[in-house]
């Protein structure tokens, strides 16, 4: 995960293989991409693992994200969720991956 000022153009280095998410807000340009593509001088936190929710899920279907977020966040683990047209992605810090997987399985989710 990396950050630039909101006025910056989207950098070409963030695009490529793997999960990529680019979000521009009033106060920042935030990018999620593979850690090895982020230049050293860019503000970044690269110790995250990304899980994809496998659907299909209808746009109007409620509770999908909550059913995955709740078992992790209720156990004190920080998360980041990104949604796309075709799916949802859950990111947790690498140090929390094993515990997050345990909580997801205990909640009845299948992790592949």
Write up this protein.
The protein is α+β, with helices and mostly antiparallel strands. The protein is built from 2 helices and 7 strands. The protein has helices at residues 64-73, 97-106, and strands spanning 2-4, 21-24, 29-32, 43-44, 48-52, 79-83, 88-93. The strands form 2 sheets. The protein has a 4-stranded antiparallel sheet, with no helix packed on it. The model has no long low-confidence stretch (mean pLDDT 90).
SSE blueprint:
Elements: E1 2-4, E2 21-24, E3 29-32, E4 43-44, E5 48-52, H1 64-73, E6 79-83, E7 88-93, H2 97-106
Share of helix, binned: 10-25%
Count all strands and give the number: 7
Approximate shape: globular
Record the strand order, biggest sheet: 2-3-1-4
Order of helices and strands: EEEEEHEEH
User: Regions with pLDDT < 50 over 5+ consecutive residues?
Assistant: none
Amount of beta strand: 25-35%
The separation of the N and C termini measures: 23 Å
Total of DSSP H or I helical runs spanning 4+ residues: 2
Helices and strands: which structural class?
A: alpha+beta
